[in-house]
Design a protein that fits this description.
alpha+beta, Immunoglobulin-like, five-stranded mixed beta sheet, four-stranded antiparallel beta sheet, 2 helices, 9 strands, elongated, DUF4352, signal, Immunoprotect_excell_Ig-like
Length: 189
């Protein structure tokens, strides 16, 4: 009798230990799956070192868009019919095409944009001026629009236009891949 009690206790203890180990492994696998899922969110394809005329794909919580840098030019505030003191301005001509399934405001997709000079760690955010073409308010799937964004920026040898970068401070940037266009002062018309 005593022998059967010992065997029952051993079997009971073994089943508890095996059950706990099995549950731990299940949790580990669940945790690994959660980590993999969160890493997949963060692993978005960045489009880096693009140039004038190139197209990058923005994939953010707003939707999926193609952004093309058509050209860049230097201007003065008088050229843009704005009052105020002189500041060198870089006018960037862009095209945005909605390649996703949801409508969005193109200005929101571009809201993370910063222009960084060759001698800077942080760039300047763009300002919207009521000039030239205006952006559409809503861009439906398969539609595109063109417009400008303007940066008040010192003259540099090299520039990098960045969208979706965390340092831009945009609410959208954390959930977006990074797109960067590089161009030189010589390429600025």
């Amino acid at each position: 009798m005593k022998k059967s009690q010992i065997i029952i206790v051993i079997l009971f203890t073994s089943s508890l230990v095996l059950g706990a180990c099995s549950n731990e492994e299940g949790n580990t696998n669940d945790e690994a799956n959660i980590l993999n899922e969160s890493n997949n969110i963060d692993e978005k394809d960045d489009d880096m070192s693009l140039g004038i005329g190139d197209t990058g794909i923005s994939n953010s919580n707003l939707g999926k868009a193609e952004i093309t840098l058509d050209s860049a030019e230097m201007a003065e505030e008088d050229d843009l019919q704005e009052d105020g003191k002189y500041a060198p301005l870089i006018v960037v001509h862009l095209k945005v095409k909605n390649i996703g399934d949801e409508s969005f405001d193109p200005e929101e997709v571009l809201s993370s944009g910063v222009l960084v000079g060759s001698e800077e760690e942080y760039g300047s955010k763009w300002m919207y001026y009521e000039v030239s073409e205006e952006w559409k308010n809503t861009l439906n799937p398969d539609e595109e629009t063109s417009g400008i964004i303007v940066f008040s920026h010192a003259i540099e040898d090299e520039y990098e236009l960045i969208f979706g970068d965390i340092r831009s401070g945009s609410n959208n940037a954390e959930s977006s891949n990074k797109i960067s266009f590089e161009f030189s002062n010589e390429e600025v018309n």
